[in-house]
Amino acid sequence: MTTPRELDGSSAGGQFLRTALALSVLETEPVRLANVRGDRSTPGLRHQHLAVLETMADLCDAEVSGAELGSETVVFEPGLEPADSERGREHLAGGSYAVDIGTAGSVTLLCNALLPLATVLESPLSVTVSGGTDVAWSPPLDYLRYVKLPLVRRFGIQAACEVDRRGFYPDGGGTVTLRLAPSSLERIDLLERGSIEGLRLYSTESESLADRDVAYRQAEGALERLDEVSELEVTERCERTVASPSPGSALVLCVDHGTGIAGFSALGERGKPAERVGEDAADAANRFLEGTAPVDRHMGDQLLAFLAIAGGKVRVPSVTEHVETRCELLEAFGVDVGLERDRETAVVSVTSPLSVRE
């Protein structure tokens, strides 16, 4: 076994693990992650993190140690040969896989971890995931469908998401299929926000909440709060009632502009009025509209793995903890990351991406 790259997750959460595993596959380089999720109250692997680890291992026939609940040290060695010069970076076989997280663990976080692998696929990949589609501490499903995927497709990632059933906390039970095709990622340059083109709104309620008009009330709360600050043309308004083992609701707002998409979301909570759910998402959208960044604060860190692959520059609304830890992780893999802050925003840049290395 090649000596693994040593990585320390003592000041990071699950995103550090997911990005590290993706980079390990992309670079066909073994890694040893110590202090996994070290800054969380319950460190170590939880169900959703274990599902990501096992899925990555299945995709690249990796040798793994520490693949168990609660483990704080993981060693991951991809079972792939580095690509030769004629085949470029394509070296990962596709196929069809099924993953059951087993709880309401986040389906969208697992999908996010897999997206960069499209750049090294030899054939299409289909992964059907069961778990929580709209749960706390992760992007709601409609953020993945209507913000993340359309944005990365602009730069060459061929990806689609099919939804069979939604899953809210605590039972989960949602099922989603992520489909990836071999992709060539273009350099990502998102420095300026284009002119605002309109607003799309997606409000979802479980069947058990339909008699309370939760989806409608969420949408109304969002639009009323937005109207107080700005006049946005609503180009799409979608209210859905869906089957789910658990009661729940979610709202996602998408702001389309000339150079990209920004997304803002909120989840229903027991005892929280549906109108307030909409207002929370609208408040985040209003803060974005007052600034100049082309992406929302969550997308800022999610794009860093793609910057590492293809290079480019992205202006982010703020340097969040996730931005900082992902920059540190990319640097640990030898990626030269620049971070320039100004009064209101910051620019993250990669000038020597993984795709051009000898």
UniProtKB/TrEMBL annotation:
GO biological process: RNA processing
RNA 3'-terminal phosphate cyclase domain sequence ranges: 12-333
UniProtKB keywords: ATP-binding, Cytoplasm, Ligase, Nucleotide-binding
Domain RNA 3'-terminal phosphate cyclase insert: 191-289
Location of the protein in the cell: Cytoplasm
GO cellular component: cytoplasm
InterPro entries for this protein: RNA3'-term_phos_cycl_insert (IPR013791), RNA3'_phos_cyclase_dom (IPR023797), RNA3'_phos_cyclase_dom_sf (IPR037136), RNA3'_term_phos_cyc (IPR000228), RNA3'_term_phos_cyc_type_1 (IPR017770), RNA3'_term_phos_cycl-like_CS (IPR020719), RNA3'P_cycl/enolpyr_Trfase_a/b (IPR013792), RPTC_insert (IPR036553)
GO molecular function: ATP binding; RNA-3'-phosphate cyclase activity
Binding site for ATP: H298, M299, G300, D301, Q302
Catalytic reactions of this protein: a 3'-end 3'-phospho-ribonucleotide-RNA + ATP = a 3'-end 2',3'-cyclophospho-ribonucleotide-RNA + AMP + diphosphate
Enzyme class: ligase
Enzyme Commission number, as recorded: 6.5.1.4
SUPFAM superfamilies: EPT/RTPC-like, RNA 3'-terminal phosphate cyclase, RPTC, insert domain
Active site: H322
Protein family per UniProt: Belongs to the RNA 3'-terminal cyclase family. Type 1 subfamily.
Biological function: Catalyzes the conversion of 3'-phosphate to a 2',3'-cyclic phosphodiester at the end of RNA. The mechanism of action of the enzyme occurs in 3 steps: (A) adenylation of the enzyme by ATP; (B) transfer of adenylate to an RNA-N3'P to produce RNA-N3'PP5'A; (C) and attack of the adjacent 2'-hydroxyl on the 3'-phosphorus in the diester linkage to produce the cyclic end product. The biological role of this enzyme is unknown but it is likely to function in some aspects of cellular RNA processing.
PANTHER family: RNA 3' TERMINAL PHOSPHATE CYCLASE, RNA 3'-TERMINAL PHOSPHATE CYCLASE
Protein name: RNA 3'-terminal phosphate cyclase
Organism of this sequence: Natrinema salsiterrestre
Classification lineage: Archaea, Methanobacteriati, Methanobacteriota, Stenosarchaea group, Halobacteria
Gene name of this polypeptide: rtcA
